[in-house]
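Chapter review: from sequence to fold.
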Amino acid sequence: MKQAAGRYPLRVVFSVPGGNYAVPQEFTLMQGTQAMVKIPSAGPWLLIDLPPGAYTLQARVEDRVFERAVTVNRRGNTVHWVVPDGNSGT
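The token string follows.
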């Protein structure tokens, strides 16, 4: 995965506080109001081929939805997303 990552404009790495990898119940990539990508049990690494632009990432973790805005430029973007888990108290 790490070797192939450079060929994808958006790279998302999910972890929980403390550094362990995480797998959200569902991941959605939105552009405006349109869901462009929806993946069940996504992660911990996602490599997504898409054009430069502004996007909203949604991750469902323990039935809570978290959102994060991201801008993908022509060089690409890596998002290290620390999502809460049941033990983190957040």
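Two observations follow directly from the output. The chain has no helices and seven strands. The CA atoms of residues 8 and 49 lie 5 Å apart.
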